[in-house]
Amino acid sequence: MSILPNYTMVWEIINFLVLIVLLKRYFYKPLLNLIDKRREKIKSDLEEAEKSKKKAAELAEKYEARLKAARDEAQEIIAQAEKRGNERREEIIAEAREEAKRIKERAMEEIAQAKRHALSQLRDEVSDISLLIATKFLKESVDYNLHQRLVEEFIDQLDKDKLGEAKC
């Protein structure tokens, strides 16, 4: 047996090389392109997901900030409302006290005026009664004194008449 070159093996190697070239040219490059495109798509999707995640985080922060601002504003509004309510309550109390003071002063003035009027009437009545009593007393005194004097004058006159008759 002789060693003859076996061309089958060479043809298999050539076929293999051609297959590799063909696969590389028609399948490997498109497959690499497809893989690259897929990789780029995945990368862009990941970047997009990261951007969306960051945007969601920013929106969440903004939402939290707005929520906190709204709560703070609500607390401020409540505090202001309480303050205004307290101020209004104090104003109402002060107004009520002033009104009570005015009513009390008016009542005191009316009482004082009524007292002055009552004292004036009492003074007038006491004056009238005193005048009446004094008039009666003086009338009685004058009448009694006058009566006494008249009696004495009459007696004196009688005495003089009796003495004059006795002298004659």
Report on the architecture of this protein.
The chain is an all-alpha fold and 168 residues long. The chain is 96% helix and 0% strand. It is rod-shaped. The model has no long low-confidence stretch (mean pLDDT 84). It is a single-pass membrane protein.
Topology of helices and strands:
Blueprint: H1 7-167
Summary of the model, kept short:
The chain has 168 residues and is mainly α. It contains one helix and no strands.
According to DSSP, the number of beta strands is 0
Number of helices: 1
Name the poorly predicted regions: none
What's the average pLDDT? 84
Shape: rod-shaped
Helical content (DSSP H or I, runs of 4+): over 70%
Distance between the termini: 240 Å
Number of domains: 1
In terms of structural class, how would the helical and strand content be classed?
mainly alpha
Beta-strand share of residues: under 5%
- Biggest sheet character: none
Q: How many whole angstroms does the radius of gyration measure?
A: 69 Å
Helix and strand run: H
